[in-house]
Amino acid sequence: MGESTVSDPFDALPGLAPLRAAAWDDDWAATQDFFAGIGDSAADVSFAAGLLAGVERTEAYLERAAKALPADPLPRTLLAERYVRIGWRIRSGARAERVSRDQFAQFHDWLRKAELLLIEVCAQHPEYGPAWTARLLTARGLELGQSEARRRYDRLAEHHPHLFRAQSQLLQQLCPKWSGSWEAAHGFARDTAAAAPPGSPAGALIAEAHIEHWLDLGGAAATEYLRDVAVRNELREAAGMSVLHPGHRPGWHSLGGHSAFALAFSLGGHLRDAARHFTALGDTVSESFWQYLPDWKNRFATYRTAASATL
Amino acid sequence: MTTQDMTAQDTSAPDVPHAPDATAQPDLAALDGLVGHTTVDGIPALFAPRPGPLTAGLLFRVGRADETLPTTGVTHLVEHLALHRLGLSDLHYNGATADAYTLFHVTGDEDEVVTYLNGVRAALRDLPLERLETEKEILRTEAGSRGNGPLSQMPLWRYGAQGYGLASYDELGTRSLTADQVRHWAETRFTRDNAVLWLTGDRLPEGLDLTLPAGRRFPAPAATDALPVTPAYIRGDDGHVVFTSVVRRSTAAAVFAEVLGRALFKDLRQQGGYSYSAEADYTPRDADFATLTAYADALPQKQDAALGGFVDVFARLRAGRVEQAELDSARGKLRRRYEVPDLGAALLPSYAHSLLLGHRLLTPERHRAELEAVTVEDLCEVARAAWDGGLLQVPTRGAEWAGPTPAPQYSETGVSGTLHPSLDDDDVTLVIGDTGVTLSLPAGLVTVRYDACAAMTTRPDGARYLTGLDGFRVAVEPTLYGDVTPERIAVLDAAVPDEAVVPLPARREEEIPRPRERRATAPAAGTETPAAKEKRAWKWSLGLLLILGVDALFGAGVLLTAVQLAESAAPRWSRLLPAVVPGILLLRITYRTYLSAQGAAERRT
Q1: Which fold does the domain B417-511 belong to in CATH?
Q2: Given an 8 Å threshold on Cβ–Cβ distance, is A116 in contact with B303?
Q3: Which residues in A lie closer than 8 A to residue B443 (C-beta atoms)?
Q4: B274 vs A147: CB contact, 8 Å cut-off?
Q5: Could you tell me if A144 lies within 8 Å of chain B, comparing CB atoms?
Q6: % of chain B with per-residue pLDDT over 70
Q7: What percent of chain B stands above pLDDT 90?
Q8: Considering B98, B260, B271, B427, which has the largest number of Cβ atoms within 10 A of its Cβ?
Q9: CATH number, span B35-200
Q10: Yes or no, beta carbons of B321 and A124 under 8 Å apart
């Protein structure tokens, strides 16, 4: 059952397949066409840039493109995203104390390469949201500090007040695991969701913050936390003003939003609440947060079945 | 007489866009109609009228950068001694010792100005050297109250412990300079040929007597280089982001400093709220180069953002994204310096400074024309050159993420010689060799070679602090390392050139450092204090005595058993067998205890 779930966003989301094909073919012209087709939605460009970064062995053709188009912010940003991903794969997702010195050194080297490209892009194109978004990743990995991450987000928000991927990245930084605090993380999620237009994906930040909090607590306390009626109510309200809002226009960010809400409700035992999100997801899911669960694909299937039984 | 830190010399000094010919004599004729020029007792003099009291400045082309580490403060001492006889008066006068010049400055009526200048002249020819020790004391006090500002470490990292780097150091000369050294400095550097006079007035006053010995015009000291790679960064105190660079003197560079200062203020203070102060400065260093300084403060919880904003502001200017309005307002500010009454008089200090350093004199018309000609591309070029040659001091963990390389924390090589383990830290060893000293630390080596030793201070208790010309320092404290005997100290004393040696007075007993108290666990061999070693030797001797006692009891037991067996009718000698293995073991332990006791005794001698 779990096997039928589509978690690769290139397959799960419509319209992204040409980007993967272009990347597999080292085809810069096709890559450029794909991004040109997105138009000027910084949120979508940044989303696609994050996905492209996960396609292996793309750095060579992106390096060539960056060299050939020294004034264009896109190829350098895509290359920087790729460098960040290479570095993070070396670091692995483990807690810092389980990462070796050598892993850290290589991780930082890749991130510095990315950061130098991004400094330049942001200096030339301060309105270019995708580069600032990537700089939130480098700021976190290079441990440039809370105030610096916030500065980067503020610079971005001047031009793009509702860039979801950037918000989600800053939220990671604001969590205690990256030297933030729960107060800061929940506060940012609430404020940002409240400031967003109805139907925008920003409400999912509230789910993301609660999932992070759950992960950090662990054990019985974690389950207790998500069972809490106040947390459930907040999640309901957040879902209602974002991905479940009548004005929500399904897009690439919907997948992540529904996935996060489905997870948060499921873990808290609120299966009836989870059901609407599972329905919206169908056979697709974003693994970003679900992979916090061991054997997550089976757990996903189990929760989905249980949730559908409540309907 | 505040002095010393007056590097902030008139930043309005007119500059030409690119490197002037250093050998070209400044063309005084260009200033005709604006500034008069003549000579007084062989000293070039510039004058221009201004109503009200007279102001005059007597400049000498000598400053801290001309000194050496052991003689730092000698120029400052001459300046203080020259002004001593003028005593207390209501007259507004001052003296200033900067990196590359010394200024005697006065404002008053004609008689007062003449009296002051003649007095300085007379004192320079005949310094009140009986005051030397008192003035040295005063300078030490002045240094103590000055403290270390956030920029204080920048010169030493860029230049080392010489030339322009000496600005980072205490005035070591206030310890050891002799009357002869000070007199010789005055005789050779404070000469007719190394001076320039400027004075507000339409003529020079009657009665001036500035006869000084003939000498020569010293060019500004050549810059030394302690930074193998730039841009570089160092770590500094919390709350301060500091940047310095050396750029070719040019009108574009002066405009750039204005643009940078305003951009930092706008970004870090007005927009971000990370900083209270955010500014930049352009100060001529010598005939061809100027020091560009940028500074921003921040609360510790905001300093990461202040650094990030600083890096981005610089990146923006490097990328050439300068608003026309930014260029226009910077240009306007520099242009307004010419919109003052009595322009000639106002420009006297900067013209005199240029004349002294051999920098070309630029008329207001020409400078204004150059200001108009500065383009955004020019600023972008200056920004890139400034960043590429920059030294950044950050309050955070580092700045490698932004491009700069860490400034060298360790020497490239070490010396071989006798090894002296630290008594504090098992991983630290001092090496005293024939060519230099090396401190071996877990992360690297710090070496001072005797032939590149800027100064070695000495204490009667044996302590020797060596500072290399590159700024690295090794402190040889005999109490903190094993076996630093008077013989090893004598090696240092013989090898370091006399002119680098600075004797310091004896320290009180409590000022002499001691190794930290170590935990009660047995210290590793070779790192304990002599006293601890002695104790260990005693313990081993006691151990030997104890083990010998056990031997005696055991032996007696075996003997008694044997005797009893022998007396019995049918002796079963096999009953002695269980004693064989313990006996061998006991003998072995005894032997090892004996060896250890011997060894401890050897290390002790």
Answers
A1: PH-domain like (2.30.29)
A2: no
A3: none
A4: yes
A5: yes
A6: 80
A7: 76
A8: B260
A9: 3.30.830.10
A10: yes
**If pLDDT is split at 50, 70 and 90, which confidence band does B604 have?**
very low
Average pLDDT, stretch A188-210?
A: 97
Cα atoms found within 13 Å of the Cα of residue B306, Cβ hemisphere only: 30
Q: Tell me: the pLDDT tens digits for B499-524? A: 999 999 999 999 999 998 654 443 33
B318:A123 CB<8 A:
yes
Alpha-helical runs (H) found in B50-102: 74-84
Task: Tell me which chain B residue has its CA closest to the CA of residue A112.
Answer: B401
Domains of chain A and any CATH numbers: 1-162 (1.25.40), 181-311 (no CATH)
Q: Does any CB of chain B come closer than 8 Å to the CB of residue A122?
A: yes
3-state secondary structure of B1: coil
The pLDDT assigned to B142 comes to 83
Per-residue pLDDT band for A97 (boundaries 50, 70, 90) equals: confident
State whether residue A273 sits within 8 Å of chain B by CB: no
Check A148 against B312: CB less than 8 A apart.
no
Is B538's pLDDT higher than 50? no
Instruction: Check A154 against B315: CB less than 8 A apart.
Output: no
Q: Could you give the 3-state DSSP secondary structure of residue B258?
A: helix
Whether residue B546 has pLDDT greater than 80: no
Q: Does A159 touch chain B (CB under 8 A)?
A: no
Please give the full DSSP string across B274-331, using - where no structure is assigned. Answer: --S-EEEEEEE-SSSEEEEEEEEE--GGGHHHHHHHHHHHHHHHHTT---HHHHHHHH
- Residue A145 and residue B305: Cβ atoms within 8 Å? yes
What are the tens digits of pLDDT across the range B35-66? 999 999 999 999 999 999 999 999 999 999 99
Which residue of A lies nearest to B273 if distances are taken between CA atoms? A151
Integer Cα distance of B244 and A13 in angstroms: 51
Residue of A nearest to B308 (CA): A148
Could you tell me which CATH number the domain at B232-344+360-406 has? 3.30.830.10
Question: Which chain B residues contact residue A116 at CB under 8 A?
Answer: 402-403
Residue B329 has pLDDT above 90, yes or no: yes
Lowest mean pLDDT among B11-15, B81-85, B270-274, B527-531: B527-531
CA-wise closest residue to B124 among B45, B58, B173, B40: B58
Which CA distances in Å does B196 have to A212, B21, B200?
Answer: 72, 20, 14
Would an 8 Å CB–CB cutoff place B312 in contact with chain A?
yes
**What percentage of chain A has pLDDT greater than the value 90?**
91
Per CB-CB distance under 8 Å, the chain B contacts of A126 are 316, 321
Query: From the CA of A165, how many Å to the nearest CA of chain B?
Result: 21
Whether residue B106 contacts residue B82, with contact meaning beta carbons closer than 8 Å, is answered with no
Q: What average pLDDT score do residues A145-152 get?
A: 97
Extract the tokens encoding B12.
């309005």
Tell me the ipTM for this assembly: 0.95
Residue B48, beta-bridge partner list: B200
What percent of chain A lies above the pLDDT cut of 70?
99
Q: Do B401 and A144 touch (CB under 8 A)?
A: yes
Residue type at B273? G
Cβ neighbourhood burial of B172 (10 Å; 0-12, 13-18, 19+): buried
H-type alpha helices, B319-405: 324-335, 343-357, 364-373, 376-388
B388 close contact with A: CB closer than 8 A: no
> How far apart (Å, rounded) are the C-alpha atoms in residues B484 and B601?
19
Which of A72, A76, A112, A119 to mutate to probe the B interface, most B CBs <10 Å?
A: A119
Predicted local distance difference test score (pLDDT) of residue B586: 62
B395 touches chain A (CB under 8 A): no
For the segment A167-179, what is each residue's pLDDT rounded down to a tens digit? 999 999 999 999 9
